[in-house]
Write a structure and sequence with these properties.
Blueprint (H helix, E strand, L loop, with lengths): L13 E9 L7 H10 L4 E2 L9 H6 L1 E7 L12 H4 L3 E7 L3 H16 L3 E9 L7 H7 L14 E9 L1 H5 L2 H6 L4 E2 L5 E3 L1 H5 L8 E6 L12 E7 L4 H12 L10 E3 L3 E6 L2 H5 L3
Parallel strand pairs: 2-3
Antiparallel strand pairs: 1-4, 1-5, 3-4, 3-12, 6-10, 6-11, 6-12, 7-8, 9-10
Helix pairs in contact: 1-4
Amino acid sequence: MQPSELNMTTTVTGHQLFLFVTFDDGQGNAELATAIDALGQGMENVHDVDGAPSAEAFSKGRFQLLRSEQGLTNDQQIIHTAVSESKGLIRLECASLEPIKEYESGFRQLIEAAGGSVETLAGVMRPRSYTSHAMTEFAYAHAIPPGPGEKFPLAAVTPINKTDAWWQMDVLHRESFFLPRYNENEEMVVKGHALASAAGVPRINRRLVHSSDGYGLEGSYDFVGYFEFAETDASVFREVMAGLRDKDQNPEWKYVLEGPEWWGRRVRTGSEFVARV
Protein backbone atom coordinates (compact mmCIF):
# COMPACT_ATOMS: atom_id res chain seq x y z
CA MET A 1 0.00 0.00 0.00
CA GLN A 2 1.14 3.53 -0.72
CA PRO A 3 1.37 6.27 1.96
CA SER A 4 -1.33 8.31 0.19
CA GLU A 5 -3.77 5.40 0.54
CA LEU A 6 -3.11 5.30 4.29
CA ASN A 7 -3.36 9.03 5.06
CA MET A 8 0.36 9.04 5.83
CA THR A 9 2.86 11.60 4.60
CA THR A 10 4.20 11.10 1.10
CA THR A 11 7.13 13.50 1.56
CA VAL A 12 10.65 12.06 1.25
CA THR A 13 13.38 13.98 3.11
CA GLY A 14 16.28 11.60 2.50
CA HIS A 15 17.47 8.07 1.85
CA GLN A 16 19.27 5.45 3.92
CA LEU A 17 20.94 2.15 3.08
CA PHE A 18 21.99 -0.51 5.58
CA LEU A 19 24.73 -2.70 4.12
CA PHE A 20 25.09 -5.87 6.21
CA VAL A 21 28.30 -7.67 5.32
CA THR A 22 29.37 -11.27 5.79
CA PHE A 23 33.06 -12.12 5.24
CA ASP A 24 34.67 -15.47 4.75
CA ASP A 25 37.09 -16.41 7.52
CA GLY A 26 40.44 -14.73 7.14
CA GLN A 27 39.27 -11.95 4.82
CA GLY A 28 39.97 -9.12 7.26
CA ASN A 29 43.12 -7.67 5.66
CA ALA A 30 44.85 -4.33 5.23
CA GLU A 31 44.16 -4.09 1.50
CA LEU A 32 40.41 -4.49 2.01
CA ALA A 33 40.44 -1.98 4.87
CA THR A 34 42.23 0.61 2.74
CA ALA A 35 39.75 0.10 -0.10
CA ILE A 36 36.80 0.59 2.27
CA ASP A 37 38.32 3.84 3.54
CA ALA A 38 38.79 5.04 -0.03
CA LEU A 39 35.11 4.45 -0.80
CA GLY A 40 34.13 7.08 1.75
CA GLN A 41 36.28 9.88 0.38
CA GLY A 42 34.13 12.92 -0.30
CA MET A 43 31.47 11.74 2.16
CA GLU A 44 31.13 12.63 5.83
CA ASN A 45 32.19 10.02 8.38
CA VAL A 46 29.37 10.22 10.93
CA HIS A 47 31.59 8.64 13.58
CA ASP A 48 33.18 11.98 14.49
CA VAL A 49 30.14 14.25 14.12
CA ASP A 50 28.33 15.76 17.10
CA GLY A 51 24.80 16.82 16.21
CA ALA A 52 22.69 16.87 13.07
CA PRO A 53 24.37 16.97 9.64
CA SER A 54 24.88 20.14 7.70
CA ALA A 55 22.90 20.52 4.48
CA GLU A 56 26.14 20.23 2.50
CA ALA A 57 27.22 17.01 4.20
CA PHE A 58 23.76 15.50 3.80
CA SER A 59 23.71 16.34 0.11
CA LYS A 60 27.08 14.62 -0.47
CA GLY A 61 26.32 11.54 1.62
CA ARG A 62 27.34 10.25 5.04
CA PHE A 63 28.48 6.86 6.35
CA GLN A 64 28.98 5.01 9.62
CA LEU A 65 30.95 1.77 9.96
CA LEU A 66 29.84 -0.72 12.59
CA ARG A 67 31.27 -4.06 13.75
CA SER A 68 28.83 -6.68 14.96
CA GLU A 69 28.62 -7.22 18.71
CA GLN A 70 28.80 -10.98 19.00
CA GLY A 71 26.26 -12.52 21.32
CA LEU A 72 23.94 -9.49 21.48
CA THR A 73 22.06 -9.86 18.19
CA ASN A 74 18.89 -11.92 18.56
CA ASP A 75 16.32 -13.35 16.17
CA GLN A 76 12.66 -12.45 16.38
CA GLN A 77 9.68 -13.65 14.32
CA ILE A 78 11.20 -13.05 10.87
CA ILE A 79 14.36 -15.13 10.40
CA HIS A 80 16.84 -13.25 8.23
CA THR A 81 20.25 -14.90 8.53
CA ALA A 82 21.98 -12.49 6.13
CA VAL A 83 21.31 -9.83 8.76
CA SER A 84 21.59 -11.80 12.00
CA GLU A 85 24.83 -13.55 11.02
CA SER A 86 26.48 -10.52 9.44
CA LYS A 87 29.89 -9.45 10.73
CA GLY A 88 29.42 -5.74 10.15
CA LEU A 89 27.21 -2.97 8.86
CA ILE A 90 27.70 0.24 6.94
CA ARG A 91 24.86 2.71 7.36
CA LEU A 92 24.58 5.31 4.61
CA GLU A 93 22.38 8.39 4.41
CA CYS A 94 21.96 11.13 1.84
CA ALA A 95 19.47 13.69 0.55
CA SER A 96 19.38 11.81 -2.78
CA LEU A 97 19.79 8.13 -3.52
CA GLU A 98 22.50 8.23 -6.21
CA PRO A 99 25.63 8.92 -4.08
CA ILE A 100 24.92 6.14 -1.60
CA LYS A 101 23.88 3.69 -4.33
CA GLU A 102 27.24 4.33 -5.95
CA TYR A 103 28.92 3.59 -2.60
CA GLU A 104 26.85 0.41 -2.25
CA SER A 105 27.89 -0.79 -5.70
CA GLY A 106 31.58 -0.22 -5.00
CA PHE A 107 31.36 -1.83 -1.58
CA ARG A 108 29.56 -4.88 -2.93
CA GLN A 109 32.26 -5.37 -5.57
CA LEU A 110 34.98 -5.20 -2.91
CA ILE A 111 33.30 -7.66 -0.58
CA GLU A 112 32.28 -10.16 -3.24
CA ALA A 113 35.81 -10.11 -4.68
CA ALA A 114 37.02 -10.98 -1.17
CA GLY A 115 34.61 -13.93 -0.95
CA GLY A 116 31.95 -12.25 1.17
CA SER A 117 28.42 -11.02 0.61
CA VAL A 118 26.32 -7.91 1.23
CA GLU A 119 22.65 -7.73 2.22
CA THR A 120 21.05 -4.31 1.72
CA LEU A 121 18.05 -2.90 3.57
CA ALA A 122 16.88 0.32 1.96
CA GLY A 123 14.50 3.01 3.11
CA VAL A 124 13.41 6.60 2.86
CA MET A 125 13.23 9.23 5.55
CA ARG A 126 9.83 10.89 6.03
CA PRO A 127 8.26 13.44 8.37
CA ARG A 128 6.20 11.91 11.18
CA SER A 129 2.65 10.85 10.25
CA TYR A 130 1.05 10.13 13.64
CA THR A 131 2.37 13.05 15.66
CA SER A 132 0.24 15.86 17.12
CA HIS A 133 1.79 18.95 18.69
CA ALA A 134 1.29 17.43 22.15
CA MET A 135 3.02 14.19 21.12
CA THR A 136 5.86 16.16 19.55
CA GLU A 137 6.40 17.97 22.85
CA PHE A 138 6.28 14.70 24.79
CA ALA A 139 8.29 12.38 22.58
CA TYR A 140 10.54 14.54 20.41
CA ALA A 141 11.15 17.98 21.93
CA HIS A 142 13.49 16.47 24.54
CA ALA A 143 14.99 13.73 22.39
CA ILE A 144 18.77 13.62 22.33
CA PRO A 145 20.50 14.63 19.08
CA PRO A 146 22.98 12.37 17.26
CA GLY A 147 26.42 12.14 18.80
CA PRO A 148 29.89 10.87 17.88
CA GLY A 149 30.94 7.27 18.28
CA GLU A 150 32.95 8.10 21.38
CA LYS A 151 29.75 9.28 23.11
CA PHE A 152 27.35 6.70 21.66
CA PRO A 153 29.47 3.64 20.77
CA LEU A 154 26.65 1.09 20.54
CA ALA A 155 23.95 0.82 17.92
CA ALA A 156 21.00 -1.44 17.20
CA VAL A 157 18.94 -2.04 14.07
CA THR A 158 15.34 -3.26 14.27
CA PRO A 159 13.60 -4.04 10.94
CA ILE A 160 9.85 -4.65 11.31
CA ASN A 161 6.69 -5.33 9.35
CA LYS A 162 3.15 -4.46 10.32
CA THR A 163 0.48 -7.09 9.61
CA ASP A 164 -2.23 -6.80 6.98
CA ALA A 165 -4.75 -6.17 9.76
CA TRP A 166 -2.80 -3.07 10.79
CA TRP A 167 -2.81 -1.59 7.31
CA GLN A 168 -6.53 -2.28 6.93
CA MET A 169 -7.35 -0.13 9.97
CA ASP A 170 -8.67 3.40 9.72
CA VAL A 171 -5.90 5.96 10.26
CA LEU A 172 -7.41 7.19 13.56
CA HIS A 173 -7.60 3.62 14.81
CA ARG A 174 -3.91 3.12 14.02
CA GLU A 175 -2.97 6.40 15.65
CA SER A 176 -4.79 5.48 18.87
CA PHE A 177 -2.25 2.74 19.61
CA PHE A 178 0.45 5.34 20.23
CA LEU A 179 -1.45 6.88 23.15
CA PRO A 180 -2.33 5.55 26.62
CA ARG A 181 -5.84 4.24 27.22
CA TYR A 182 -8.09 4.85 30.24
CA ASN A 183 -11.12 3.12 31.71
CA GLU A 184 -14.44 4.65 32.74
CA ASN A 185 -12.83 5.84 36.01
CA GLU A 186 -10.09 7.68 34.11
CA GLU A 187 -7.51 5.15 35.30
CA MET A 188 -4.75 4.26 32.86
CA VAL A 189 -5.11 0.64 31.77
CA VAL A 190 -2.71 0.58 28.80
CA LYS A 191 0.47 2.60 28.33
CA GLY A 192 0.53 2.58 24.53
CA HIS A 193 3.62 3.04 22.37
CA ALA A 194 4.53 6.50 23.67
CA LEU A 195 4.70 5.63 27.36
CA ALA A 196 6.07 2.13 26.76
CA SER A 197 9.13 3.67 25.07
CA ALA A 198 9.36 6.88 27.11
CA ALA A 199 12.52 5.86 28.99
CA GLY A 200 14.48 5.97 25.75
CA VAL A 201 13.57 9.52 24.71
CA PRO A 202 16.32 11.31 26.70
CA ARG A 203 18.88 8.48 26.47
CA ILE A 204 18.73 6.90 23.01
CA ASN A 205 19.08 8.57 19.62
CA ARG A 206 16.47 7.08 17.29
CA ARG A 207 16.11 7.21 13.53
CA LEU A 208 13.42 5.53 11.45
CA VAL A 209 13.24 4.80 7.75
CA HIS A 210 10.23 3.69 5.74
CA SER A 211 10.04 1.20 2.90
CA SER A 212 10.86 3.02 -0.32
CA ASP A 213 8.10 1.35 -2.36
CA GLY A 214 5.19 1.27 0.08
CA TYR A 215 3.94 -0.83 2.99
CA GLY A 216 2.82 -4.43 3.30
CA LEU A 217 4.94 -5.57 0.36
CA GLU A 218 6.41 -9.05 -0.02
CA GLY A 219 10.18 -9.23 0.41
CA SER A 220 10.76 -5.92 2.18
CA TYR A 221 10.40 -4.42 5.64
CA ASP A 222 7.87 -1.68 6.30
CA PHE A 223 10.26 0.11 8.66
CA VAL A 224 13.86 -0.08 9.81
CA GLY A 225 14.70 1.47 13.18
CA TYR A 226 18.24 2.59 13.97
CA PHE A 227 19.34 3.48 17.51
CA GLU A 228 22.62 4.76 18.99
CA PHE A 229 23.39 4.91 22.70
CA ALA A 230 26.07 4.88 25.39
CA GLU A 231 27.40 1.68 26.94
CA THR A 232 25.59 2.57 30.18
CA ASP A 233 22.28 2.89 28.35
CA ALA A 234 22.27 -0.57 26.78
CA SER A 235 19.95 -1.61 29.60
CA VAL A 236 17.63 1.29 28.77
CA PHE A 237 17.39 0.12 25.16
CA ARG A 238 16.54 -3.40 26.34
CA GLU A 239 13.94 -1.95 28.72
CA VAL A 240 12.35 0.03 25.90
CA MET A 241 12.19 -2.99 23.58
CA ALA A 242 10.72 -5.14 26.36
CA GLY A 243 8.08 -2.47 26.97
CA LEU A 244 7.17 -2.26 23.31
CA ARG A 245 6.90 -6.07 23.09
CA ASP A 246 4.55 -6.22 26.09
CA LYS A 247 1.28 -6.61 24.21
CA ASP A 248 -0.80 -6.00 27.33
CA GLN A 249 0.71 -2.55 27.79
CA ASN A 250 1.41 -1.86 24.10
CA PRO A 251 -1.32 -3.55 22.02
CA GLU A 252 0.27 -2.16 18.84
CA TRP A 253 2.78 -5.03 18.99
CA LYS A 254 -0.01 -7.52 18.24
CA TYR A 255 0.35 -6.21 14.71
CA VAL A 256 4.16 -6.29 14.50
CA LEU A 257 6.49 -8.90 13.06
CA GLU A 258 10.14 -8.24 13.83
CA GLY A 259 13.25 -9.13 11.90
CA PRO A 260 16.54 -9.67 13.78
CA GLU A 261 17.49 -7.17 16.47
CA TRP A 262 21.05 -6.52 15.29
CA TRP A 263 23.64 -4.98 17.62
CA GLY A 264 26.87 -3.31 16.51
CA ARG A 265 29.71 -1.13 17.70
CA ARG A 266 30.53 2.05 15.83
CA VAL A 267 34.08 2.30 14.47
CA ARG A 268 35.94 4.99 12.56
CA THR A 269 38.14 3.19 10.03
CA GLY A 270 38.19 0.30 7.61
CA SER A 271 40.88 -1.45 9.62
CA GLU A 272 38.65 -1.41 12.73
CA PHE A 273 35.72 -2.54 10.61
CA VAL A 274 37.45 -5.72 9.38
CA ALA A 275 39.53 -6.32 12.51
CA ARG A 276 37.28 -8.96 14.07
CA VAL A 277 36.65 -10.92 10.90
